[in-house]
Amino acid sequence: PSWVHERGSPIRCVSLDSFLRELLEREPDNPYVAVFAPLIIDSDAELTQRAPEFWQIIQHAPLDAWTLDELIGHYVNYRKLRLNPEGERHRQDAFGLYAVATRCPSGLVRKHPLTPTAWDGVYDLPWGGHQVRLIVLNAIAKH
Which of 96, 94, 93 has the alpha carbon at shortest distance from 135? Predict the structure, then answer.
């Protein structure tokens, strides 16, 4: 939403301007923090200078058990924070959990087998009571 970027918005005040800024300083190689860099860094010049660094960090982040745990954590937080017009949580089936990997995450697959779907390069992966749809980019059908 556009209001997220506005100075003084609740998300910037509570999370971005304090917690994430400090986390970026402490963990500059953390891909989970690097994705928020455009929201954390106010200076266009600094962001432009550091963009290639952040892209490398994000691009080389592994899809592993921790990443999937993070995905579930974000899903749970989102369901807690975003309420429907009646002030209630959205139904669980109103959400889809998706992970995208450039190549097959072989380390993850050794311990957690993937279930193929009807589409090449698209798999289902049960994770913590949820179903994650995994899209492996170098395995999807060429159109």
Answer: 96
Q: Rounded CA gap, 83 and 85, in Å?
A: 7
Instruction: Give the number of residues written for the chain.
Output: 143
SS3 assignment for the chain: CHHHHCCCCHHHHHHHHHHHHHHHHHCCCCHHHHCCHHHHCCCHHHHHHHHHHHHHHHHCCCCCHHHHHHHHHHHHHHHHHCECCCCCECCHHHCCEEEEECCCCHHHHHHCCCEECCCCCEEEEEECCEEEEEEEHHHCCCC
CB 106 within 8 A of CB 69: no
- Amino acid occupying residue 112: H
Would the pTM of this model clear 0.85, i.e. be above it? no
CA distances from 6 to 2, 3, 37, 74, 81 (A): 7, 5, 15, 22, 19
pLDDT tens per residue, range 72-84: 988 888 888 788 8
pLDDT tens sequence across 91-143: 888 888 999 888 899 999 999 999 999 999 999 999 999 999 999 988 998 77
